[in-house]
Task: structure prediction
Amino acid sequence: MQKILCFLMGDFRHFRWGFARFIGGFVRFCVACLALFVLFAELAKPDAPKPQAKPQAKTQPKAPQAKSTQKPKNTKSPQKSPAKTNTKAKPSTKSKTPAKSTPKSKTTQKSQKAKKYTPKPLPNEKEVQDIASKAKVINYGEPNLARLKRALEGKNELKILVFGDSHIAGDTLTHQWRKTIMLPNSVGFIYPVFPTYHQNLLVKTISKDFEVRNSRIDAYDDYPFGGVIARAKKENASVKITLKFPPEHQDFLIRIVFKAPNNTLGAFLISDSSGQSYRLQAKEANIWEISQDFALRFPIEIKSLLPNATLGGYFIYQDSKNIADTSRTSKSRLSKLEKLPINEQKESELDSSEETSEQSSQDKDDSQNPPKSQNPQKFSYANLTNLPKNTNNLIAHIGSNGARSDIWRKWNQKALSDTLCAFRYDFIVLSYGSNDALVMPLDTKAFEQNYSSLIALVRKCNEGAAILLVGPPKVITKPRKAKNYRIAPYFVAVRESVKKVAKKEGVLYFDMHEFMEDSGGKDAWVAKSLSKKDVHLTPFGYSLVADGIAYGLHKVLNIQTKEIKESMEAKESKETKENAPATKTNKSEQKPELNTPDESSAPQEIWQSKIE
Result:
């Protein structure tokens, strides 16, 4: 019995073990089937959704090649081929739409840029005369008009000095007066070396190893008249001065404003193109002095003999009869001037050496000279030989970019007075206010007091000179984050203050803003290429302002010029036509004030009309 039970138990154990193996095998079979099903399902997925290849065709360039290989397989069914071509055309149209939009935006941007930089038409000669004839110079009681009238009518002895800001620093306005009011045979006062964007169109200066400082920008406690100095960094620092006069008119008298660190040694060595050399020595150390006048033939070269020797400017003129003799007064310190023996080298050798020094210094100091774009006009001296040499016909300026009406307070007051009194001027112009209107906040009382004090100083040194105050044009600024230009908040206050000072001091007054408004305003001047969008004008605009002041002066002084007579006759004829009954012919003849200029009129001929 036990054997039977053991046999049965053993078979049961074998049966249990076999059943377990069966279940395990069945489970493994099911798992394998599922795995195969999933594998076949994944393999079947790319074949079923064919549209998934479309986004790959946009990003990857290889996708269209794969589709092109599948095209021959479907060539058997001609009905499906047009369907596929239609489906392919849809994404192509989608891709073309953004491609067309991008070139359009680029072309529109280019066209907009081209519109901004296209040259705008300039007014013709008739329009220039019409605009200039509307200028008004108001007389608030100037006592020296008779002397100014004699000087303007004679045109042989006229000395003009202009104070101002960036409207004057470019020398465009003053240069127009050299063409219309008189013909210059002298230069007058100039800076020792012109800072960037400052110039005198009659002079060219090239410096080497000189440090140029400007009273508006650089801190310095001893600026002379004009507020610009050139300090020698080391010995043999040089400045070459060339005058834009004909070759037969290069002999001039010159005075040098300078100071030296000591008075025991020579400060500068001056040599001219004729071979003459002078050693300039200071009378006292570290004090501004004005040298005696001595004759030189230009171009000349000034070399420093001491480091830190400083130049403050030059007077260049023809005759010394109307020049103040400061040697007789104790206020001015004259320098010791020693003439050296003439060098044995020929003039040609001196000229060649100067040319080499000019080329070497020009590469380093191009920033000291204005760019070519700032010098658009040419000047001719056809009638210079008719002027006698014993006269001084000159227009000088001390314009400074960014200058305000109180800039002269930064200068050495004694040097300012001595230099201003060295010349006896006939006409002095003060043109400040544009940069004063940008001061936040503006003290109008201080502004008026500074202006009145400057007029008093000018009167003290030049009792017989007529004085003209020029009001600023519309002061427009553009903040950094702003898109459009805005009128300065204190522009109206400055304009009224300048007019108030002119009335108080009894001088002449010209309102540049009113002059522009009477001829269409700022926008019309911008459209006529007479003004920029900011506060500045174009060279043609400054020339037109100069013509307007000249017309206004001749009206105040009752000087009947040819142009003024023609403008008066034109006005009278217009008034008679307006008063007459309106007819069809009169309506057709009426024209607006600002007409489009003729294409045949050349810009150079527009500004060469002289007031005779």
User: Anything to note?
Assistant: The chain is about 40% helix and 15% strand. Residues 189-353 form a domain with the Jelly Rolls fold (CATH 2.60.120.1360).
